[in-house]
Amino acid sequence: MKVVETIDLEQKFQDKIDREIKIEPNDWMPEAYRKTLIRQMSQHAHSEIVGMLPEANWITRAPNLRRKAVLLAKVQDEAGHGLYLYSATETLGADREDTIDDLHSGKAKYSSIFNYPALSWADIGAIGWLVDGAAIMNQVALCRCSYGPYARAMVKICKEESFHQRQGYELLTTLANGSPEQKELAQDALNRFWWPAIMMFGPNDDESPNSAQSMKWKIKRLSNDDLRQNFIDATVPQAELIGLKVPDENLKWNEETGHYDFSPINWDEFWQVIGGNGPCNKQRVDARRKAKEDGMWVRDAAMAFAEKRMKKQSA
Ligand code: BYC
User: Fold this and answer.
1) Can you tell me the distance from the alpha carbon of 258 to that of 229, in angstroms, rounded to the nearest whole number?
2) Ligand 1 touching residue 112 (CB < 6 A)
3) Which has the closest alpha carbon to 56: 293, 292, 287?
4) Which of 225, 221, 245 is nearest to 235 (CA)?
5) What is the rounded distance in angstroms from the CA atom of residue 19 to the CA atom of residue 52?
6) Closest atom of ligand 1 to CA, residue 220
7) What tens digit of pLDDT does each residue of 108-131 get?
């Protein structure tokens, strides 16, 4: 294609975005826009699927039938979110198997938070309250993403995530109002999950290589730091309400800014975790690889059946 033509197409594309018209799969789009979306959406899908692992580990140990049924439903919802997101990524021409292979080879990332272990039942509450809470804060903004299939997938996902967040908070509220040992479990879960949840929003804006372009394309509507601040402002009062202490000595309401001030984030830990050196990285990727290998016979059988059917139809 001629350079002049491409510039013209790019201008029309940006103009559509500026006028809040959604970009749909068959519309012209710059290659870099397509690549950015494939990167972000496939990583988002991987996060949903890997995110099932720490919670699934507690299904058999849930303390009663109600908690077990709720947790089972939540973990199933996460699988559904992964599937919508893989399908939405395919609308950009990505091959699903390739994106999954990228997860298994370590080429593609998934959310840093899932490289931390769920050590106690209270962690299931902390995951729902903090992890799903942080996820919603980010995903509500993604409902207005410029790419239609991603934005629409987010609407349903956000509805389910909001139920997840509330079940987590309700679980921790019950523990925080229980025996001293139960309250201690709840506080310990908050202590371990607070900072990793804060890191979920990604690096500070001035250290985020993808943000400026993604904001211009309206893939991202709010910056990493703005979303993080909104999350802290919304979550601190929730902790206070149930008598838990956020593990940050410098956390303080600032009358002037109308926001909480908080301690510097340990970015070294964040980069280590997303670089593959978190407490559970190896375990998580191994579990996903094993799931693929163990399920191979089902895929093979489905493919053989489909081929046989096609042959029969064309005969
Ligand atoms: N973890 O330039 P930046 C859930 C990477 S799961 C790992 O700011 P961007 C749930 C980033 O990818 C919710 N990596 O990037 C499921 C980039 O590396 P690459 C998951 C991170 O894309 C089960 C580099 O750091 N949500 O709901 O503009 C149970 C520089 O960052 C992280 C999503 O995936 C991280 N935390 O912004 C419970 C939302 N942060 O790719 C709950 C969709 C940054 O260049 N994703 N990196 O190699 C997004 O909104 C954006 O991709 C991010 C990062 C805000 C995460």
Assistant:
1) 11
2) yes
3) 287
4) 245
5) 38
6) 50
7) 999 999 999 999 999 999 999 999
